[in-house]
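Researcher: Last one for today. Full complex below.
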Amino acid sequence: MFILLWIGSRLRFEDTECWDINEESPYWWIIKGPIVVSIGVNFLLFMNIIRILVQKLNPRLIHFNNSSHYRRLTKSTLLLIPLFGTHYMVFNFLPDYFNVSLRLCIELCLGSFQRSRASTRYRLTKQYGAAYLTICHLPAMHGRVKLKSTAQQEEEKKKEREKKLKVYVATRDACFSKRKEGAMDDEALQLTQQLLSANPDFATLWNYRREILMHLETVKEEGEVQKQYDAELAFLETCLRVNPKSYGCWYHRGWVCGRQPRPNWSRELSLCDECLALDDRNFHCWDYRRMVVKASGVPVDQELQFTDRLIGSNFSNYSSWHYRSTLLPLLHPESPEPPAPTPACAHPPTNSPPNSPHTHSHRVCEEQLLKEYELVQNAFFTDPNDQSAWFYYRWLLGRAEREEMISCVYMSREGERVVVAFSRPVNAQAVGLMLVLDGQLQRVKWRSAPPSARHTPVWICELPPGTISDINNEHNLTVHWTEKHTQRECALYTGRAESWCRDSATDQELFRSELSVEKTSVLQSELQSCNQLLELEPENKWCLLTIVLLMRALDPLGYEKETLTHFQKLKEVDSMRTNYYSDLCSKFMIENTILKMEYAEVRVFSISEKNLTTLCHLDQLLLVTHMNLCTNQLSRIPPQFSMLQCLEVLEVDDNVIESLEGLHNLPKLEEVSLKNNQISKFSQLRPLASCPKLTRLDIRGNPIARTDNIAAELAELLPSVTDLML
Amino acid sequence: MSGIYWGLTVMDLMGQLHRMNRAEITEFIKSCQHECGGISASIGHDPHLLYTLSAVQILSLYDDLSAINVDKVVEYVKGLQQENGSFAGDKWGEIDTRFSFCAVATLALLGKLDAINVDKAVEFVLSCMNFDGGFGCRPGSESHAGQIYCCTGFLSITGQLHQVNADLLGWWLCERQLPSGGLNGRPEKLPDVCYSWWVLASLKIIGRIHWIDKTKLSTFILACQDEETGGFADRPGDMVDPFHTLFGVAGLSLLGDEQVKAVNPVFCMPEEVIQRLRLHPELLS
Ligand SMILES: [Zn+2]
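Model: Here's the assembly. Have a good evening.
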């Protein structure tokens, strides 16, 4: 209407040129009026948002020691100015002919901001929306700003509080005494309602209400009961509007719906929608919704569409992505017969029982997986700094859970020892492990490596003396894992001192993505997209990390160099998590070294100058005899190191090792070189005493080498060592 | 009841437990135990697992568990276990992994963990594990730092930490640290001292505490201390309360602050108390 009026007056009185030039006229204000008003309103809105923003930031004292945060804040505020047309305010009350060229210049500059991506605008609305929400819904013990006040104000407040408290205590006592009397009447409902409106976390009062409601069920007609519960739901709705995060309210609501003769589930669903529209991360409401969905039998695909909708309207919604991760495997489960990688050696037949609850597959079929990649890509291209989509993407890239099986059986004549490795940690004493040697069941005692672990992938036992010690005898060993109906065989031929049977990491595709080979082209194009994004946002840590993961899924060895560069960059742009990136990089480098070792078919594990900060996958190194970890940043030999039952020589020079905990009970260990580490106390060397064959020890360049009398003490602790270098 | 536990644990961590009125507190707890064995938040309230744990924690600090009827507490906890292994908070049947933690922590402190079906309880908690390696209230619920603390604590007490995907969960947890140094409880949320504790304790339990920036976190926690009262608030400048004071102080202890006694990350009680009870909750290394 305004526009019509405006066009009308323009046409009638000032139909000159292209309406951009006007002279002083009495009708000026008719034309200009609506413009001024709308700019004014916009300005008020703008000021209000700035006020909220300042309010939100100030009391929290959020420390921005990172200049990029300041930059981003300034940028956001600058963007707001053209968005709300605030700059027009400046010119509003000046006549239009005032300094036209200056005006044009400023307007063009500011206006250019308006052309920035729609996503930026969307991001802003999101930020300010969140500001509103956090101010409106504050939980009981959170976010109460401490206000400075004068003594007088304090006094007044105190009085008021006391007055309120008095009323509250009186009502509470009345409630309690009514309950003691066994009163189940409307007055009791009234009193509890009063108290619960003020304090919905008063669990005992909800209990009392439930007692009363259950009593009323027995005395009222069904229609009446239905009405009674409807009233209860109405009361709960008012409570939830004030306090949408009260455990007590939500539980009571679910309870009421469960008791009601004819629950109205569609009303409950729309209540949830309304609540999620206010706060799409309220996990109480999400959980309640899941309960309603289950009770009313909403089909899974409809729920998936629900997440489509929510994600479509707001990519940054971790709760929706999470929900998706629970729905997809139900709707598109991984095919029951996964395309098996062509086995290099014959796998023993494994009849694994149906998935037990804690190994149930969270995986999704390949076809759907590819669609999901596209959806997530849309999300992180829209807002590359939003973590929700990236977390989800990493899940999609994850590997299938390893099948539970015996991955290696090793036997040695010396010590008449058998070592069994499993694909995941187990408790061998509890899983029914049976050992049959040449058709004879053997009674053995299993011990774990490391010794303190109840659940570990590696278990060791000794056969009765004389069973396999004669090198002229051939033996056949079978290890039965009765609980999983699986077994593994191992033959020890004459003339051989040891023998093993195993799946290698390469056979098991341990460190690869779960996608079949034909689909690697998809991963390749994913990698390309991420690289494009990285060009736009070279400091985006989420993008960097995802690129590393994609590279690993595609070709871990081929991309090793790029991976290292990206990790270096990650530590620079996200310095708070340096240690995480170092550990993850170490893990990947160890995986690569295992692959290389297996391709070379050797038992030597060598990884030096790779900045290793942690050791992992040690259960994969059961057969390794020589290990070189020199020039890294290892601070300890972890307990899991005692899994390396074949290790003979260990070199860990030039690290920062303080603990040798894992050098425990290593039956074949002969040489340890620990040059230039941080061993400073005698007690740190004590684990070595449990390695019977240790003859050579080098601890030069450690603080302990300079202590008095160390040689004598070591001779006593380690009598087998003949070659000690201090 | 929980308020007393928060306050007393802070006092004990600061070596000031003797300044509290022990006799009065013990008497109060006694009067909160009900016929069924459960303990309530206060006199006249209904018993609940949350307060049963708090009461048992307080009496453990005082090394005075015999003040209440221990057998009845065990019966009460046992009675709340459901067919699927989960625990209800009280007889009204709300199910939550928080209550699973309360149940096993209570029984562990009483030395009676074998009273319940531990395998089933573990199975339920594991069914609450999510795509991000975290845990929620119930199967299908979103991961939340408080819930992750309860579930990793539960798995530590029951010796089942190997079931956790520590690398994945550790990543999610260390991503909770914000530029201010404080930690939040879920992605895209504000930092908070109590979440700092829950995330930090969980990281300690799964052996990944070095994945966050300790200096920045301790600066944040100290900024939450109120100069007038000495207490801690959820965020700098907010009102202080005993809840956040405990989690602030306990967090500083985990970060290695030497003015505070060592705290046990699973039970949130002084390490010396846990050792006195001869408990060895599992920690990953
Ligand atoms: Zn808090």
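Residues A 142; B 192-194, 234, 244 surround zinc ion (CB under 6 Å). The mean pLDDT of chain A is 81.
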